[in-house]
Write a structure and sequence with these properties.
The chain is of the alpha/beta class. It catalyses: octanoyl-[ACP] + L-lysyl-[protein] = N(6)-octanoyl-L-lysyl-[protein] + holo-[ACP] + H(+).
Length: about 230
């Protein structure tokens, strides 16, 4: 079995505004067009979260894609990694089990200060769900929560499939990690794991649902829905 990799460096994301500006007008937004290596992203999130806590950087929502890889959350079961040599596997440190990231999936890493906003973890996760639901609604897709199942689900021809994943970590009330929305990933790549430990359910994407959307369309929808849910 290929060993689970750990990041080996810390990379800070430059601040673009003082903290007071970010708090009063929402977080900074960063969009990366190229695939960001996972260790680089994880190190950057760690550094930014610490800077937010220290008051030296504003909050940040970071939209990006990764090269094909699997991540193991804190509840990951070894048996749910079905193809350990297919793609790199990383220990994520977030909640949840195994998930896939790759091109065509919009990952949204969210670094905000819950102590300033609302120090309630359940309310925060509920807001992330609502963010995804409202984003999907802009494409006439009905995303839904399911009791006992993390993520956002859609129903097609009587079959439930997962279209978005959620995995968070919170340290000293500052969040990192976040959400992953399937826009047009290679869905066969999910076959190397049991996604989120739920073998009986499939995965889908906006393109798989027959919607000719672009990543730029999704980014705009995410930004508009964020303002409704988190800044309204």
């Amino acid at each position: 079995m290929r060993p689970i990799k750990q990041p080996d460096e810390m990379i800070a994301i430059p601040s673009a505004a003082p903290l007071e500006t970010a708090v009063s007008h929402g977080p900074d937004w960063r969009i990366d067009d190229g695939a960001v290596p996972y260790p680089e992203a994880l190190a950057a999130m760690e550094a930014r979260a610490e800077a937010i806590r220290a008051g030296t950087a504003p909050e940040l929502v970071w939209l990006l894609e990764h090269p094909p890889l699997y991540t193991a959350g804190t509840s990951a079961q070894a048996g749910d990694l079905l193809a350990p040599d297919r793609f790199p596997v990383y220990r994520a440190g977030r909640g949840g089990q195994y998930t896939y990231h790759g091109p065509g999936q919009r990952v949204g890493y969210v670094m905000v200060d819950l102590k300033r906003r609302n120090p309630d973890v359940r309310a925060y996760v509920h807001s992330l769900e609502e963010w995804l639901i409202r984003t999907l609604a802009r494409f006439q897709v009905k995303g839904e929560r399911r009791e006992g199942r993390v993520g956002i689900w859609v129903e097609r021809d009587g079959v439930e499939k997962k279209i978005a994943a959620i995995g968070v970590r919170i340290r000293h009330w500052v969040t990192f990690h976040g959400v992953a929305l399937n826009v047009d990933p290679d869905l066969s790549h999910f076959a190397g794991i049991v996604p989120c430990g739920l073998a009986q359910y499939g995965v889908t994407s906006l393109i798989d649902l027959g919607l000719p959307v672009t990543m730029a369309d999704v980014d705009l929808a995410l930004r508009e829905a964020w303002d409704e849910v988190f800044e309204g």
